[in-house]
Amino acid sequence: MHESKGVTIEYTARSLKSPFAGGEIKFTVQEARGAGQCFYTRLIDTGLGPGCHEISLYLADELGVDEKPLEGRRILYGDSSVFHQSSYIPGVPEAKLAAYLEEETGYLQIGVRLESFMPAGTLSVIWQARKEEQMTEKEKTVAKAQQFYIANPPKSLRPGMKYTFSCRKADTLQGRVQWKVVGENAGTINQYGTYTAPDRQGVFEVQASLEGTDQTATAYVMIKE
Fold first, then answer.
1. pTM (predicted TM-score)
2. 100: which residues sit within 8 A by CB, 6+ positions away?
3. Beta bridge partners of 10
4. What is the pLDDT of residue 1?
5. Contact, 137 vs 116, CB < 8 A?
6. What is the reported pLDDT for 147?
7. Cα–Cα distance measured from residue 172 to residue 151, given in angstroms and rounded to the nearest whole number
8. Least crowded by CB within 10 Å, which of 32, 59, 85, 98?
């Protein structure tokens, strides 16, 4: 894997708390480059070790104008051309940023493709990586529970009032939602999730389950005048 020829590349690490890592890369070209030119870094050690990382890339702009030349620099997220009709006009050339990660080592390479003319000068790219953390068994249980839940519990209902509940479930889950009210004199609910509140005040439990699975979800309903 090679660095881009004719381009001086400077690497600077940033101090971030785990599980994040980051740095800044300055691509300095001595001669103007046209649209379509690509620059590549060497492989960069994120320091996060093997595994899947979330990678974010940003452009740093020190030459833009906002009614007057910028006194500091701006960090650009997304497509800089969006700002061409705003009061802030970026001074950096339009560029596409990309990165790939070697999952076995945790090393990444960053590439830049110019989408517009770039005069001789420096293009600064800020990168940030976040290590994907493995869930504990408790967290897996919570995540599993969140795959099926009651999406619209009411804040409160009046005695005798009707209200229709609905559930959300992950695309991987199949089955018919079954409803029930827990306890006596707690109201009734039909197969479509339409709940009829009891003629008394209190807090009552409505439960949904997914037929053929161990998925359940609970909502507590306050009945008050």
1. 0.60
2. 108, 109
3. 26
4. 41
5. no
6. 82
7. 17
8. 85
Is the CB of residue 201 less than 8 Å from the CB of residue 192?
no
**For the range 206-209, what are the long-range contacts, defined as Cβ-Cβ under 8 Å and sequence gap of 24 or more?**
206/150, 206/153, 206/165, 206/179, 206/180, 206/181, 206/182, 207/179, 207/180, 207/181, 207/182, 208/148, 208/150, 208/165, 208/167, 208/177, 208/178, 208/179, 209/177, 209/178, 209/180
Nearest 5°: phi and psi at 63? -115, 0
Place of tokens 């090393």: 107
Query: Of 87, 111, 123, 101, which Cα lies nearest the Cα of 46?
Result: 101
The token pair at 17 is: 């708390």
Q: What is residue 4's predicted lDDT score, i.e. its pLDDT?
A: 66
Cβ burial of 47 (10 Å; 0-12, 13-18, 19+) is middle
- Written as six digits, the tokens of 56 are 């974010």
Q: Which amino acid is at 141?
A: T
C-beta of residue 36 within 8 angstroms of C-beta of residue 95 = no
pLDDT tens across 158-213, in order?
A: 899 899 999 888 878 888 999 999 999 999 999 999 999 999 999 999 999 999 88
